[in-house]
Amino acid sequence: MIGIQFNNNKIFSNKTNVIPKQYQLLINDINELEKTLKDLTDIELRIESFKLQNEYKETQDLNSLISRSFALTRESSLRTLGLRHFDVQLMGGLVLNSNKIAEMKTGEGKTLVATLPASLNALTKKGVHIVTVNDYLANRDQVSMGQIYRFLGFDTGLIQAGMSQTERKENYQSDITYVTNYELTFDYLRDNTTLNRKDIVLPAFNYCIIDEVDSILIDEAQTPIILADTSKDTSVEKFIIASEITNYLEFNKHYIVDEKNKNVTLTELGSQQVEKIIQTQDLYNPRDPWIPYIINALKANSLFFNNIHYIIQANRIVIVDEFTGRIMPDRRWGDGLHQAIEAKEKLAIRPRTETQASITYQNFFLMYPKLSGMTGTGKTSEIEFEKIYNLVVEVIPTYKPTKRLDLPDLLYKDQFSKWNAIAQFCNSVSTTGQPLLIGTTTVEKSDMLAQLLNEYNLSYQILNAKPENVRRESEIVAQAGKKNSITISTNMAGRGTDIILGGNINFQIQKELYDILILAKTALKQFKNLNDFEKYKLRSVRHNLIQRIRRLKTITQRCSQKFFSVLLTLITDKNFIELSDIDVLRILQENDRVAIPSISYQCAIRFLLNDLIFSTQKHHKQENKIVKNLGGLCVVGTERNDSRRVDDQLRGRCGRQGDPGTSRFFVSLDDNLLRLFGGQKVQQFLRNQIPDDSPIESSMMTESLNNAQKQVEERAYEQRKNLFEYDEILDQQRSIIYFERRLVLESPSIRNNTLAYGEQIVCEFIKQVKKKEIDLNQMIKLFENLFGRNLNIKLISKNYSNLTEFDNLELQNYFFQEFWLTYQAKINQFSVYGNGNKIFRNFERQVTLLNINTVWQEHLEKISLLREAVGWRGYGQKNPLTEYKREAYLLFTERKEALIYFTLYQLFRGTII
Ligand code: ADP
Ligand code: MG
Predict the structure, then answer these.
(1) Please, are residues 67 and 359 in contact by the beta-carbon 8 Å criterion?
(2) Where, by residue number, does ATP bind (predicted)?
């Protein structure tokens, strides 16, 4: 390893270092305006902001407000955070406002850039969503950037995991809301399954900025987001009893089978029979429902057969694709059907969560009328962004020229020599004190490297991107630029936190002060409730506190005399003791320079913070200089990733804001990427070239690696494109359903909807008779079953199997009337309970919504089965996507029929419990 020539070293540089003219002109405007804003007081600035809002109200035109709004935001950022947007950041903001992706390198200040288009678009009062990759970042950005918005008179919201419905709703009502992609998408899915209008949390979509946009729209867009239904009780017992009961039910007397739609309904007699057996008054009781179990058991008996629809393999039901005969081992039928069949076959019953709703990120984010994103690495995926999301990627020049040094890859013969070389390399770098960041592709590999470093007695921090430790992870990453620090991290860990050479003092001080304040708070709380017997407790806590402060003192070296006296007053302030831990954290994070805090403990905390920062700064500047002289951060890649973008992400962790920095990748011939996509010949050739212990640098290998990456990237892209194309079809259906659903949810009465359902079902059945799919007798039976009473059809001649013998329209009218009578009778029945009309309206709505949910859920299940089947079936010349489209459409129309039938059926049977 030692003695390798670093030839062909590449200094990373931006191709375009100038701002394009179309942006420069606007930027000049903004710079001009800035001068006039300088003289205004804070209040006058806010008035300017309100003026813009009013102007938008009148003109409905944002474009004419861009420069004024940007200039205002810049000025308020300077006055609140002390940060003035650079011109390149203004360009970033302009790009974001024009529905594009801004590629800005790590550390260029994307968080601040987003405030420009966010404030501008907040003028519309229609809501702006800023999407981040984790809760920690959403919180961090909302708290810090919130100060700018507040200054301008906008309010901000923040969504975090675990928040209640009410909190979410409130936060989404804000002008600007920070939220993760995960929470946002789930809120959308939940909104579209809710039964109460007041539970809806999301307003209509307006404008969205996605931070780390490639991570969300590409890396995470490989699979759909699924809202699982956990409300269903899967009591195993009920499946078994229901299966037993079917032995006492007669076909056509107690139940009716609709083979075409694969549906079963109980007749009135059937219901009575079941109620008698299980001794219940109401099969439909939502608190103890029996009906789904009975129906599924009947379906299992009469519609699903062993060796046709499924086979039994190792005591499990395995679905057989009807069309190809292939088995589908991992699939299960939804909504309890699978369990019902297991019960029928007397196998063990396995519960499972069901998909209640699902969507892909692709289709989700496309719902925003105005969408934009930012990332350090977007250009390499620009085709995908353009084709799927219609987003152009624009590269923003860096504020300072980049000085990062990307060293050529080193190629080893096998894993063994590669990892040894990495450990050795880390060891030799660490002797100089230069900070090291080592990226690995998996947690296992991180652990393995850690073992190797142990052998060299090196100390390191190890990190992975588990959601539960994002905060800790950000803290560690923030310190990764300190002298002597070694950080091993999986590639995604700590995204969004920038690495400052010499360490991030704000972070460090915030954390230390937070710990001390919490400790003091707890100690004082204890003191309040203390009795003599517990005095020893106080002593130990106080001791601990003093220790901590001493430790802090060694970090800060010398803080002012006043520091300790303020600390002492603070921790005896009784209002301070009552603060929650989160409150303390918030006060620490809001380094508010403008609004002078009116509350004394806030004042004190801010003093402590600033005092510490001030006294540490000088020391920190020295540290920063030392690390710069050592060459900045050294980034080590331990294998090339599947995509160049991810490699660039890792490289981009160093060389921030014009800092020095180096990056180097170690690869081996048996790395996955080279092994699978490197090409046989190249492999063979290289194998002969590499000596046993030392690496080579070869342009041929680099070429081969680049090709391999391209192949993998294209493949992954094809997969996502495929997912998108298929989901697009489902998406059209989804928007129809969600639209219909919203109408049902929001209109004061859905009477007309129910009447339309009635007409549709009548027409549908008559159509089926005409097509000879059912005969008239069957139709009458179906109606009798639906209405729950016998029909006395006098107007039709005896031989009514022939439709020509009576008037089509007459028949239709007859059934309309019967339907209407049944409906009216039901309403009357409810009127017995006083305010019957209102109760019935609610009941009607609930039944309809519930059925929309379950039928949609079943539809999703069928669609995913279809999706799988389509992939396997040979279609000859036909395009599977077209076939999928056709069949998905058929399923969709069947779904509507089922929805109507079930809704009416339950409506006519409903009683008040
Ligand atoms: P990115 O998301 O682009 O990687 P961040 O938004 O995390 O970068 O910002 C990196 C650092 O740069 C932060 O510490 C931020 O305070 C600082 N910064 C951003 N914009 C400016 C500015 N205009 N002037 C000074 N510092 C800035
Ligand atoms: Mg960022």
Answers:
(1) no
(2) 89, 107-111, 498
